[in-house]
Amino acid sequence: MTFLRRQLPLVITFVAGVIFTLQYYVPHPKSEILLTEGSLWIQIIGLFALVLGVTSLFHIHAVKIKRQEPGWGYSLILYFGIVVTLAVGLFVQWVGGQHPGGKETIDGAMTAFGWIYTYTMVPLQGTMFAILAFFIASAAYRSFRARSKEAALLLTAAVIVMMGRVPLGEYLLPVTGDITLWILNVLNASVRRAILIGISLGAVALSIKIIFGLERAYLGGGKE
Amino acid sequence: MTAVIPGRTLSGVCLPWVMLLLWSLPLSAQAQDLLPAPEQVQVFDTPNDAGQSLTLLWADSLRDGPGVRYQILIAPVADARATAPAVDPAAMEIVAEIPSDSHYVRDRSWPWWTHPAPPAFHRYVINSRSGLELMNDTPYVVTVAAVTGEIRTFGPAIQAVPEPNWVNWNQMNNLLLLLAFGAGVFGSIRTAKRREIFLRRIPGLDAVDEAIGRATELGKPILYLTGAGDMGEPSTIAAAVILGRVSKRVAMYETELIVPHRDPIVMVVCQEITKQSYLEAGKADIFKEDSNFFITTDQFSYTAAVDGIMLRRKPAANFFMGSYFAESLLLTETGASTGAIQIAGTDSDHQLPFFVTTCDYTLIGEELYAASAYLSREPVQVGTLRGQDLGKAVILGVLALGTGLATIGLILDAQWPALLLDLFRDYK
Lengths: 224, 428
What we know:
The complex is a heterodimer of chains A (224) and B (428).
Chain A lengths: L1 H22 L5 H39 L4 H20 L20 H32 L5 H17 L1 H6 L2 H37 L13
Helix pairs in contact in A: 2-3, 5-7
Chain B lengths: L14 H20 L7 E4 L7 E6 L10 E8 L16 E7 L22 E6 L12 E9 L2 E4 L3 E3 L11 H23 L8 H16 L3 E4 L8 H20 L3 E5 L2 H17 L11 E3 L4 H15 L3 E5 L5 H11 L3 E6 L5 H7 L2 E4 L1 H11 L2 H34 L5 H4 L7
Parallel strand pairs in B: 9-10, 9-12, 10-11, 12-13, 13-14
Antiparallel strand pairs in B: 1-2, 2-5, 3-4, 3-6, 6-7, 6-8
Helix pairs in contact in B: 2-10, 3-4, 4-5, 4-9, 6-7, 9-10
């Protein structure tokens, strides 16, 4: 069992890690096929894991409903949503529809499943995304209160950049356009690149540790 | 030359061709005077590629300029065994016609170890495309013709075979740097095993204990998110590794842990990690299998669900580790409104401003990868961190040296700085 749980995953990780690292340096079409096949395998494994995920989702909400925990009504709605969408997607034919599983038929007509997606999922997603605008305003208000030197500096930079990025701001204070470009292209870009260098080295170091089995925590547990 | 293929003997040519050749000789000489044929022509399989491509090089000419154009011509070889393929250049298919003052070797950046010809040479790459399919391992005859008005002079027709390559030599500097960095990391791990290495303070990680302690005191749960990425992303792996350290302390304090997931594979991995942490903490009896649970892969559905958890359960501490997109502010701002202590760690540089403004502590970029070392203090982890720092020191040195060398090279119009600078460039 230890071999299956420990050694085998480490061997697979090492072999796959080395092969896919070298794959980057091999332009041969067979190398590309290997990468595509590997990605397909990952997708297939992901689909198996999705079964575990959905099982977990059903289990969690079934327990909530059974125990009538706070917010259990939402769990009922979730069950209702899943069951209705599944049933419609699998069995209900729209007028003239031939493929109930898809969002559209071959001739472009909307299916019942497509109707649910377009008129419930899309507006709900849009609503969540739209809330972002208000959250940006509240977050900006909190961070731009000049309570320290750094916050004051941030506030100044933000005001200049905002002035420089909107036509009215640049019209009122033309100099903000050039200062904005300097802030973005010099200060911002250099710091961003420094962060990216650190991130890249960190990612490579972590990958090396994983490939050579020095980092095993992702297998569930530390040293063994 | 005009319509004459080099290496072809008259004895092998039939009578009408001989007549045509004799008739054309004076014209050829005249054309050669007016427009010299392309010289030093080379045709070969395009190196460092996936095949179906041939590269043509030829020397620049004094006649290059407005009014002179080059035609690239190709023909498949019927008899692959023939050393000197019998193809009439005038009958070959014209692939492209280009101005004579374009398509130079210098137009593309090459490292010095794969530079194909002097920078002033012309270069044309014939790629397989719609209407012109170049088959791998199939011989073709290629030539170039100089054209001005009605005059056309041909370079030698050369046979070449496109084939896929097993190594991209342009990227060997990349591999070399990777190996050097890997050696640096292993060397640092060895050093860390022998002596203690100083780690600078990371306030965000010092606050982990504070956050867990606060949650315990308040009797509220801890929310831990592993981000939007799958297990293939280093940031998700780092988030999962940190979860192991955090959940061990959570287990010791006997606090509730909530870990909602967007990816089922990450969920399964994190379940194992959390379980192991509880075992190591000697608290296996209080481990809950459903502390890690799956919500959905959809970005905003997941965000809405997590926001709901935050508002209903009011966790005392929120951890946002891994990679994030537009959902970052929706999550952290909701968390901030509930009064939770918030610690974020991400390599999504585009989301860093949102985390910095809304969270109490933020692990910026590489600090996410350093967290495991910082929390565990294991020599292997600390040594890796040291290796990363060495890598950064090298990059800083190269930046300074490269700036100096590039400036000197420009002032002196010298090529020698490229010997070093090319080693650190990204080539495809």
